[in-house]
Amino acid sequence: MGTTPLQPGGVLGVCAPSSRFDPETLNRGIRVLEQLGFEVRVPEEIFQKKRYLAGDDKLRAGLINRLFSDPDIDAIICARGGFGAMRVLDHLNWNLIRHHTKPFIGFSDCTAILLSIIDQTGNKVIHGPNVVSFADAPQKTIDSFYDTIQDSVDAIKVSAGQIIKPGKCTGVLKGGNITTIAHLLGTRFQPDFKNCVLFMEDIGEPAYKIDRMLTQMKMAGLFVGIRGVITGSFENCDNIEYLKEILSEIFDEYTVPVLSGLDAGHGKINLSLCMGTDVEIDTVNSRIHWI
User: Fold this and answer.
1) Residues tagged active-site
2) pTM exceeds 0.90 for this model
């Protein structure tokens, strides 16, 4: 169903494809991962600095390539989001990544890499906390990560789910941060959501900007052939009360279920989601089930 399970004692390699980070916050996140029983390896390269980035593009990409090729690394997790992940896409060795299957974990700006791994290699990924997120993560976020990385999650109940459009569907779960997805439009890494259940979340974007980005995606044909939609958290987004109406209008012409309220993304709770694999969405039971 999911990615290759990572058992306690497994080795997590840290990469930094996006923005610079606070070393102390990183260390606090690492301690949480170590308390779960994992060994965490932190390459010196991630502490490089170039403007707001964690080093130059080739260095950040080269580290990801190296972690994928290293037989001693069982899974790869991003240090933080911010900006910069899309800048490394042209420098990643997709053939190498395709033939060295291992869990790749991250969210936010790292959406660019998650979606590209699925589309370029067919490998599965985990939309879940970056290392710095673990520093102050609630237990529910930590438990979800631990269960997902061990491939022991088969369903998530969307307890606070709101049905925008009722229905039931199956498809490949793909998606992530709306702003990052929008910035991939028109590039060779524009994601393909045909036959997919689309997941979306964001932070700090007012309702009109969410509307604008979704409208752009729709006009670009990004939603043609989707099977369903599920939305996560929209943290610190102004006029969020408009979101239900926006989603209803954007997806009105598609005969697909739309469910909101999944605790995944930039909210206090960030449930881990295995992506690139088939799921079933059922709005009646407000549930996402991995097939």
Assistant:
1) 108, 201, 266
2) yes
Looking at residue 4, its pLDDT comes to 85
Give the tokens for residue 22.
């606070």
For the domain made up of 155-290, give the CATH fold.
Answer: Glucose Oxidase; domain 1 (3.50.30)
Q: Which top CATH class is 11-149?
A: alpha beta
* Nearest-10 Cα torsion for 221, 200, 237, 184: -50
Q: What's the CA gap between 225 and 146, in Å, rounded?
A: 33
The per-residue pLDDT for range 275-289, each reduced to its tens digit, is 999 999 999 999 999
Cβ-in-10-Å burial (0-12, 13-18, 19+) of 49 comes to exposed
Positive or negative, the Cα torsion across 132, 133, 138, 143? negative
Domain boundaries, the chain: 11-149, 155-290
